[in-house]
């Protein structure tokens, strides 16, 4: 029997997984192709678009490493370790990702800082060969308009003034070119990461909305219609379409030129949206209803060893096994439950670079006290 899971968490890219994803028909209530989109659909142009995207993705070595080193499938524990031998704490995360893929719904992932919430998006894009991840890092000032697109009205005004100056000088050829430039509003519009994710395509993009709990109180409500309808309008182009200019070309977040018809973008396949949250706030019930939710588990000792091996090599796992155990022990204490995983990597990296440091008594190590300082401790590390 074929495994229903498209995403396996193996960090290995495979084209057959993408084919499996595209073969799964969306629920009828999550299908977005309308008559207008079908009439302007160009499969050949879409294929060229994805060829360019994969060329861009191949140059993003940092993103590639991030996707390859993230671990959801853990190696089998030693034979003498029978605790949890038949269970993987990340199984629920893998199932949640696949449910979101099938249902075409955003996935909200909560968990401690450093638990791998953000890296999951890169692992998903890597494994399913879905091009570069579209990243929208949220701040308290983030607005939906910013995520959708930016319109450079100042540049257009400057070009309009240039056209007028050339007209006064009687330079007819230059006048015609300048006039054509400033009237082509599309060249002054750049899609943001969210807007780019909704470009109509037969293959979905991966959109990472990072730390959404930092957002203004209104942003989750502003996202509701977009998540439900899968479309948005660009007002500046909508006005042009009513005047007869139905097709405009704008720049995507990836720097590619893409066509927009009648001032509207409507997805063909709903994007794969991963939203991360540190659990610092609640969201409206209507927002939760449009998402699937899962919590990233705190990494076990086995998971930490896999993480260290992926980033620093198996040799360092063996050499600094006592450091990993100390980290797990510290995490078990209530006051240190918020220790981020990257601090463990930092400490082992320093020990690996300077063997003299590693010879210290770990419990008395100033570095340990510095790096194993809980995030919920507002004061300095007690040295």
From TrEMBL:
* AAA+ ATPase domain location: 103-300
Q: Which InterPro entries does the entry mention?
A: AAA+_ATPase, ATPase_dyneun-rel_AAA, P-loop_NTPase
For this UniProt entry, the molecular function terms from Gene Ontology, in alphabetical order, are: ATP binding; ATP hydrolysis activity
A Pfam family (short name) is AAA_5
Put simply, this protein is called AAA family ATPase
Which organism does this sequence originate in?
Adonisia turfae CCMR0081
């Amino acid at each position: 029997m074929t495994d229903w899971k498209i995403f396996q968490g193996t960090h290995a890219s495979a084209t057959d997984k993408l084919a499996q994803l595209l073969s799964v028909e969306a629920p009828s209530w999550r299908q977005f192709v309308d008559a207008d989109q079908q009439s302007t659909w160009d499969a050949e142009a879409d294929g060229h678009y994805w060829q360019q995207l994969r060329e861009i993705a191949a140059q993003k070595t940092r993103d590639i490493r991030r996707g390859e080193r993230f671990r959801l499938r853990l190696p089998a524990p030693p034979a003498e370790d029978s605790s949890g031998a038949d269970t993987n704490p990340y199984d629920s995360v893998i199932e949640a990702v696949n449910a979101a893929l099938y249902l075409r719904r955003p996935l909200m992932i909560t968990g401690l800082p450093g638990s791998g919430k953000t890296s999951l998006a890169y692992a998903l894009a890597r494994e399913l060969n879905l091009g570069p991840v579209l990243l929208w890092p949220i701040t308290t000032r983030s607005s939906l308009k910013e995520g959708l697109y930016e319109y450079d009205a100042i540049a257009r005004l400057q070009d309009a003034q240039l056209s007028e100056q050339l007209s006064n000088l009687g330079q007819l050829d230059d006048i015609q070119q300048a006039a054509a430039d400033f009237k082509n509003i599309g060249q002054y519009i750049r899609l943001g990461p969210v807007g780019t994710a909704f470009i109509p395509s037969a293959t979905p993009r991966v959109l990472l909305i990072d730390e959404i709990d930092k957002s203004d109180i209104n942003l989750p409500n502003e996202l509701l219609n977009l998540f439900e309808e899968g479309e948005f309008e660009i007002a500046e182009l909508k006005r042009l379409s009513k005047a007869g200019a139905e097709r405009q070309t704008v720049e995507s977040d990836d720097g590619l030129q893409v066509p927009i018809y009648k001032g509207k973008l409507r997805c063909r396949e709903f994007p794969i949206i991963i939203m991360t949250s540190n659990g610092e706030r609640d969201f409206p019930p209507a927002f939760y209803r449009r998402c699937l939710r899962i919590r990233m588990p705190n990494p076990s000792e086995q998971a930490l060893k896999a993480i260290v091996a992926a980033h620093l090599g198996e040799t360092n796992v063996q050499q600094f096994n006592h450091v990993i155990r100390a980290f797990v022990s510290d995490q078990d204490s209530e006051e240190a439950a918020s220790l981020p995983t990257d601090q463990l990597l930092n400490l082992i990296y320093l020990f690996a670079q300077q063997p003299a440091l590693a010879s210290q008594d770990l419990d008395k190590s100033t570095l340990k006290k510095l790096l194993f300082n809980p995030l919920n401790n507002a004061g300095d590390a007690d040295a």
